[in-house]
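Hi W., the flavin-adenine dinucleotide complex you wanted:
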Amino acid sequence: MKSSKHIVIVGGVAGGASAAARARRHSESARITLIERGPDVSFANCGLPYHIGGEITDRDDLAVQTPTSLRKLLALDVKTLTEVTAIHPDSGKVELKDLKTGECSTLDYDELILSPGASPIRPPLPGIDDPRVLTLRNLEDMDAIIRAARTVERVAVIGAGFIGLEVAEQLVHIGKRVSLVELQEQVLPQLDPEMARPLVEALKHKGVETILGDGIQSFGGSEEGLWTNLASGRSFEVDLVVLSIGVRPEGELARNAGLALGPRGHITVDGFQRTSAPSIYAVGDVCESPDPLAGGHAAVPLGGPANRQGRTAADHIFLGDKALPYPGSIGTAIVRVFDLAAGMTGLSEKRLKGADQSFESVVVNGPSHASYFPGAETITLKLIWSPDTGRVLGAQAIGKDGVDKRLDVIATAIRAGMTIDDLVHLELSYAPPFGSAKDVVNVAGFAAANIRDGLLLPIPTMKEAAGCQIIDVRPPETSRRLPAPGAKNIPLGELRERLGEIDKDRPVYTVCQMGKTSYFAARILANHGYDARSILGGAHHQIE
Amino acid sequence: MKSSKHIVIVGGVAGGASAAARARRHSESARITLIERGPDVSFANCGLPYHIGGEITDRDDLAVQTPTSLRKLLALDVKTLTEVTAIHPDSGKVELKDLKTGECSTLDYDELILSPGASPIRPPLPGIDDPRVLTLRNLEDMDAIIRAARTVERVAVIGAGFIGLEVAEQLVHIGKRVSLVELQEQVLPQLDPEMARPLVEALKHKGVETILGDGIQSFGGSEEGLWTNLASGRSFEVDLVVLSIGVRPEGELARNAGLALGPRGHITVDGFQRTSAPSIYAVGDVCESPDPLAGGHAAVPLGGPANRQGRTAADHIFLGDKALPYPGSIGTAIVRVFDLAAGMTGLSEKRLKGADQSFESVVVNGPSHASYFPGAETITLKLIWSPDTGRVLGAQAIGKDGVDKRLDVIATAIRAGMTIDDLVHLELSYAPPFGSAKDVVNVAGFAAANIRDGLLLPIPTMKEAAGCQIIDVRPPETSRRLPAPGAKNIPLGELRERLGEIDKDRPVYTVCQMGKTSYFAARILANHGYDARSILGGAHHQIE
Ligand SMILES: Cc1cc2nc3c(=O)[nH]c(=O)nc-3n(C[C@H](O)[C@H](O)[C@H](O)COP(=O)(O)OP(=O)(O)OC[C@H]3O[C@@H](n4cnc5c(N)ncnc54)[C@H](O)[C@@H]3O)c2cc1C
Ligand SMILES: Cc1cc2nc3c(=O)[nH]c(=O)nc-3n(C[C@H](O)[C@H](O)[C@H](O)COP(=O)(O)OP(=O)(O)OC[C@H]3O[C@@H](n4cnc5c(N)ncnc54)[C@H](O)[C@@H]3O)c2cc1C
Ligand SMILES: CC(C)(COP(=O)(O)OP(=O)(O)OC[C@H]1O[C@@H](n2cnc3c(N)ncnc32)[C@H](O)[C@@H]1OP(=O)(O)O)[C@@H](O)C(=O)NCCC(=O)NCCS
Ligand SMILES: CC(C)(COP(=O)(O)OP(=O)(O)OC[C@H]1O[C@@H](n2cnc3c(N)ncnc32)[C@H](O)[C@@H]1OP(=O)(O)O)[C@@H](O)C(=O)NCCC(=O)NCCS
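Structure:
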């Protein structure tokens, strides 16, 4: 173990601070310098939206560590308000600029870890420089939004990804009138559209005006308000804009130093987070790692990966190739939008279609815990797998409770290379307040295996059934309350006696509320010789 | 696919009804007869305690299906209040007794599925037949307990396993004075003792008198009360006793029919739930399946396994060896005790010690979600793995929130054969309300790998450190409020400057609140040449 080396780290937050902490645990004699452009280190980026909305009341809670505490606890040389302006891989030097004094200097490194992160995209649109157009990355940005929001009423949030949704939610908490604009035809574009749809309902319910399939074109300012002009020609006036249309890796330093970059400007790294230059590592939002699911490299700009990549780089510095490599990110992410949680892990149908990879998918609904125990809420779970191997490729879930648990179970299964058959027999914790004897994850496995085995012939959504012979097997009351367009109601319990009412010469599609009894009905019909298919996911989220 | 066979199922609840349901989905023409000794089928056994305590308000909610609905939905021939009294494997017949009329008859089967469950143990103790000594297995038992509890105040619950704890909790809900007696020196004997300890605190806090390490010897009745006499000589008077000291498989039918049984009377089955007799399957609490972790066979009397085993038996009847075999149970279980949840998956330290298998373990504490976000609660997680392969063998967790999620993630990891290194890089869903960038499951993986790699030299509990040089690295206030016996307080931030105060010639043990900063301190000390070890899990649950 080399121990008196000088480790220089660029970026003092998730990836950088984690790398520094782990490095110090490997060695007390290493010199570790943490260089941060901003005034703060080790802050909880992910918590920023929640202080805007007052849910995290104390700003200090967001400072996980301070420069002082990092010096004290980790004996780091912390240089805040200092920017690294150039890297010289050949001579092992970085150039620094002290942003308080403007002074420049150089610093030798034995090992360099780059964790400069990614910055919010600000496209060069007319009016973008209006001081009322803000972005959110750090504590200062947050303070600016809080200050600006204090006295105004109308806010446009541009971009309905994870951060946009969180900001919109929190602005509603503090009584703002929020318009949410998204270029794609859905919110949370990381998800498949049908899985994100309930979020739009939730937003609407809370008074958020959601504008989909429209992009920002320009801003036009006056004293009274800021005109937000969309590509469709639509314009509306707000007092404040929060732009959250994605992030761009801070790869310029690396590019100028000649490091290998990916197509979107991320620093390409291997499993030990090594860049193309010797003794230079990159971690976090700035890098792209080998993609364990889709092949090639992928960037997943999230806190968990950044933290663990930072740890991996530090390990490799001290342990060499005996370190545990980072296995790549699979893209597990979640967001809370009012009382809903929605998230994903692994590959989406969208991405698989884009990559022309073969896949199968199913959507099931199930209760968050035993349905007979108070408080059970419906979880809608989409499972995506490879028809060739049965391996689970991805999952998406939405619901009021227990969404994170199901995503985490499937994220674990994906990491392990498990198949749909493995999900069938997962043995998950079950007592009435916590789960079900057949958890919705098991049920997703059942349904997937049933599709493969020809027991479940699925129709993805009600749309595909339009104009066909549809049998609605829900109780008559439900069927009347939420009619399924074009369907004839034959409750499941009467189906066997009323087979005569169904035309055997035409395909028959069954529908119910959750996708379960329609499957039961389709089994009955198929076993009686009908060409019967079941509409996945039922009326839940599809009718009304 | 044979389709006009007659499938006879003994037992109409979890395993039996699930088998019937799946069989019907395979075939409309099969004749399926469900025979149930009691008046009810398909009820939620697991919900019974919660109706006693009024948390499940409506008794009907516990009847997931009724004989009538099963006839209607699944076209089953349901015979309730009918007991199967003998099996004749050679002739393919069962003998029935109609419990209403006393009439006997025989029934031919092509395939027989046994799911008679397990009955509460009632040892032949003096006084055990007192009508105030009740057990809880079915709706009638529940009704009897509710009736008996209505007018009384003092209840003894004998046995502090999962059901005993649930019953005790629910009796407190309705204002009873509860004494809980357990033969072992801990509650929830399925867990390792240190992990179950906080439950005793929670019970005490709610006024439950918990008597450990003492067993029931006899009951002595009088009009005023029922004397409950323990092995220690201790006696106390109650009005009602609920006995929940475990269950015994209902294996007599199978034994009399010559089927192979295990040492404790369970019917031995293979992965397709086949018994030793042709065309006879056994599922649920009555059977023991191949044990995927410990080898041999194991019985796990829980709802999830029963349901999925029933499904497996039905699959094998229709698909033969193309059916997906049941992979054995790993023993994932959970219980809520007031505001705590506690559970386990896989093998415990106890069981591994009993089996003389080598293992390593670690206990870590971590927040249920981001600690800077309101509502985070500490989860204590114990991880057990094989030192030879690194494979995860088991886990136990306790806390107020998120315990089920962590158990389910690790249950999935165990099923997949994952190692401690795999836990390090699990990519779990993280947004502040749901998780942490380094989830406590990751941290358990970190700590386990650190132990293997010699970075974390653990002392299992504070007891083992007694009399040694202990450095308490918590802030002075915490250290004063909850003193660590025999420890010298040097807060982590001052450790490097105060190394001179620590005797380098003696081993030094570090302690903190959660087990994290003591690890940090031990790393500092070790890197300065001390023989330093960290006390796992910190003062949390250990001091006070
Ligand atoms: C509002 C918001 C909410 C989020 N919510 C979640 C969430 O819920 N879950 C989740 O998983 N992730 C979330 N993220 C993403 C997560 O915070 C990032 O993935 C993570 O912080 C990336 O870590 P990093 O170290 O790569 O970059 P950062 O944490 O951004 O740190 C990079 C630091 O480097 C500094 N820097 C850059 N260039 C230089 C230079 N040349 N010299 C010196 N310093 C430099 C920057 O000032 C910055 O402070 C959120 C992010 C934001 C902004
Ligand atoms: C109070 C309580 C709480 C529980 N809580 C949980 C929990 O939270 N989580 C969990 O996973 N598990 C729990 N369980 C366990 C779970 O209910 C069982 O594992 C599961 O029901 C076993 O299914 P089974 O089909 O094997 O037996 P059972 O569900 O018990 O069904 C067997 C049926 O067979 C009938 N029978 C027996 N012999 C004959 C015969 N000769 N002829 C005809 N009929 C016969 C019996 O009357 C009985 O109704 C709990 C059990 C109880 C009693
Ligand atoms: C604050 C910060 C510097 C801490 O880094 P860190 O010390 O590596 O991380 P943690 O405080 O989570 O502690 C994890 C370490 O403690 C150990 N640990 C934690 N709990 C433990 C326990 N109960 N027993 C033993 N070890 C434990 C872990 O094993 C790990 O050590 P290792 O890496 O040597 O294995 C860094 O996480 C940071 O800057 N965070 C804020 C920014 C951020 O993450 N943003 C994105 C998300 S909002
Ligand atoms: C009520 C009972 C008969 C139901 O049996 P079941 O029909 O097999 O079980 P479920 O109602 O959970 O439905 C599961 C089936 O629906 C399918 N399903 C569920 N949701 C679905 C959806 N949204 N889309 C498609 N299929 C779905 C599953 O794939 C499965 O079918 P399969 O076995 O053919 O693959 C049985 O579970 C029972 O008796 N339970 C009470 C007793 C008990 O379990 N006690 C212990 C726990 S308290």
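The two ends of chain A are 64 Å apart (CA to CA).

W.
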